[in-house]
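Entry 12.
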Amino acid sequence: MGPEVLPTLELNGRSLELTDSGFLSDTSDWDETVAEALAMRSQIRLTAAHWEIIRFLRDYYCKFQHLPNARMFVKAVQKQFGEAKGNSRYLHKLFPESAVRYACLIAGLPKPPGCL
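Predicted 3D structure (tokens):
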């Protein structure tokens, strides 16, 4: 049996390596076009509200060099944007199933702690 082949995202002549979970293997491959393609793979159509959270999460990761767990994510969004956006209901409307997982995936960041 040969070496395991990781999934890839083919985009504009580039072949971007993904993890088995669909996250970018190399975070430096990320740009907004990649985000749009990753969102489409997850059946999420990005709006300004999504981009607000994606950019926030990328800034958070750049600043702290780690990703928040789900509870910390909601609290950090609440601190930045207030109660209306910093709650699980709002975030799950944007990123169904697991807000922190899909926000990180689309933001080109590693898989967050505690996500299966």
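Annotation: The first strand starts at residue 8 and ends at 11. The chain is about 45% helix and 5% strand.
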